[in-house]
Amino acid sequence: MATIEELKLRVRELENELIKCKQKQCAAEDAQNQQLHRPKIDRMSAEVVDSNPYSRLMALKRMGIVDDYEKIRTFTVAVVGVGGVGSVTAEMLTRCGIGKLLLFDYDKVELANMNRLFFQPHQAGLSKVEAAEHTLRSINPDVSFETHNYNITTMDNFTHFMERISSGGLEEGQPVDLILSCVDNFEARMAINTACNELGRIWMESGVSENAVSGHIQLIIPGETACFACAPPLVVAANIDEKTLKREGVCAASLPTTMGVVAGLLVQNVLKFLLKFGTVSYYLGYNAMQDFFPTMAMKANPQCSDRYCRRQQEEYKRKEAERPKVEAVQEEEEEEVVHEDNEWGIELVSEVTDAELQAASGAVPDLPEGITVAYTIPVEDTESGDTVGETEQSLEDLMAQMRKL
Amino acid sequence: MATIEELKLRVRELENELIKCKQKQCAAEDAQNQQLHRPKIDRMSAEVVDSNPYSRLMALKRMGIVDDYEKIRTFTVAVVGVGGVGSVTAEMLTRCGIGKLLLFDYDKVELANMNRLFFQPHQAGLSKVEAAEHTLRSINPDVSFETHNYNITTMDNFTHFMERISSGGLEEGQPVDLILSCVDNFEARMAINTACNELGRIWMESGVSENAVSGHIQLIIPGETACFACAPPLVVAANIDEKTLKREGVCAASLPTTMGVVAGLLVQNVLKFLLKFGTVSYYLGYNAMQDFFPTMAMKANPQCSDRYCRRQQEEYKRKEAERPKVEAVQEEEEEEVVHEDNEWGIELVSEVTDAELQAASGAVPDLPEGITVAYTIPVEDTESGDTVGETEQSLEDLMAQMRKL
Known about the structure:
- The structure is a homodimer.
- Chain A is of the alpha/beta class.
- Helices cover 39% and strands 11% of the residues of chain A.
- Chain A contains 13 helices and 10 strands.
- The first copy, chain A, has helices spanning 4-34, 55-62, 86-96, 128-139, 155-167, 186-199, 242-247, 256-275, 307-322, 327-330, 354-360, 379-382, 395-404; strands at residues 76-80, 100-104, 144-148, 178-181, 203-208, 214-220, 235-237, 283-287, 295-296, 371-373.
- An 8-stranded mixed beta sheet of chain A has the order 3-2-1-4-5-6-8-9, sandwiched between helices. Chain A has a two-stranded antiparallel ribbon with strand order 7-10.
- The longest helix of chain A has 31 residues, at 4-34.
- Chain A is elongated, with a radius of gyration of 26 Å.
- The interface between A and B is large, with 97 and 96 residues.
- Chains A, B: This is Ubiquitin-like modifier-activating enzyme 5.
């Protein structure tokens, strides 16, 4: 049996061991927590010190690029799809100091995502929105986040999605300023399109091809430009989702380069749109094989299958007709407006020639099993000139060009 | 004084507490370590399972884009400058599964870097190469890393830099396959240029403007294309480094979008060059204000101030003269070669018109204090037709265009 002295010694030993253990525990927890925080910053400053995360952004004012960079904090952007393009898009907006981000996705992080930027192997198994919010908060705690781990295309979720883009702004009840589509399938794009047509919300589309070497971004203003239903893609997955394809040993190729470029072009367009600088692009393509960047624009289709799109077109026409012609004189504060027909200084013309498009086109890819041509253009429809507004090219021409790409 | 019973109770209490503490310590350490590792992968597989980080890259073979994707593991790339462009460049190459990366930088991570991708606030104070290596290793432990925390422009470091690009390949003693310049100043670019001319190593240049809204990438093949000394930039910082400017309250603007796009275009060009697909660009510019992407190419200047460049030009001429004209027939395995004069299927012509360049040019920016025009083009030199090879535009024209940009 132990003596008092032996027991006292043991108590001292244990106490010392416990102190050491607690120190180690604290150090390990500190290391974890360090990754979570920098203090919040109340006001964006232009001060040039190493500790100011906004100095290089505020310098855009001194350089004469942006008039009021701080305004970025007043905007809310919804990012639908937090994959190869969406995650980088959310990170860029976070680093730029956007006011609030709404993230929508229902996928989990997998090691198979590691060939694209943003997610890290230790996040495998977490939901993409949860993992993204954790990383983005640690990058910039000044941004507000709202995440939704669901598929926006199911009935209930779609209703909730509509509600959130209508009233999930920085101030609850206010709409979000812009919706970004960074999804990888037709159904989700159509859902966003339907919601934005009904609510009259401006959105931007993005996409990357299955062979990983081309992509595009597109600005959609309901009633003014072609919506996703005005000129849907010719080729879509025939009701077979990515998971079914994967079970059959087939997957799309992807590259961090193409996805990074598309995210960069998308967020650049967002910054130009929100902060009113440069020329906002209606459509900008990226062909990585040839380093070719086609641009174009399509007016809304008066025979669009989406009735809310047709209603928005009526509304747009009515507003255009009501606009006083001398507007440029009345609104002197908006000096930068180049084209009178909208407030972003952009115009609806195609800047790409047939020859250029043809030059950038490769062979038509073999469609994997389960992928079919979504529809054919009926010949009788294309004979009426009504389908196309005042663009120089007919919808038929543009669709024929899309097929060649 | 404590009784034996009391002491025994205390020992039991302490033992239990110690167990709990050790459990917590382990959990916290696990959480830390989780962020460090996924197991190494011996052979790249195309298997379509969620746990395969290479499935979407290997799919490039099935899509007919790349013949032999696995070859990426045999290449070594040196990235000089691990800032806004270099860090994303290194991350993209890491995620693509490059064999080995050499990273050179002498800067520390600061909160002022947080408006660009890659670094996180908790890394502030660490050296950029150390922080980058830590993150990149956790993203892809299959890549080998070698980091050098020094300024390559000082005499001793320059000698060591030359030695490492000559013999720092995957197999020690072999040269690196490609050097990427992602630096932000004239002296460092000139140092890389000097080293690559002397060693006859191919490199790619990248750059982003001070106002954050334009950038470029460029492929430089010593003896064949213009080197950095053949047509140096007209405007450089007059011996005043970034730190001095910062002390005076001046800093360049930067955006995660422009830097991400430039890094994406750079690494895309690297992949096309190393894995032999698509068309490798000699020069690709990015004007974010207009979404304009000029391309061009410049032949080497026979009157270049760098004697190693002139020597490489002689060597190149000699080799070209020795090349048998029927080569295309002899080397049947290289089916994809479009142009006979090099192995990358690229040609030296300007693809941008004067009008296009002019359209994309803004006003000449005000130069901040300490920034001067580096030189003027002597009129007598430009009168001899010798300076320009077989390009359609004279060096003088191209320089005049550069000045407009």
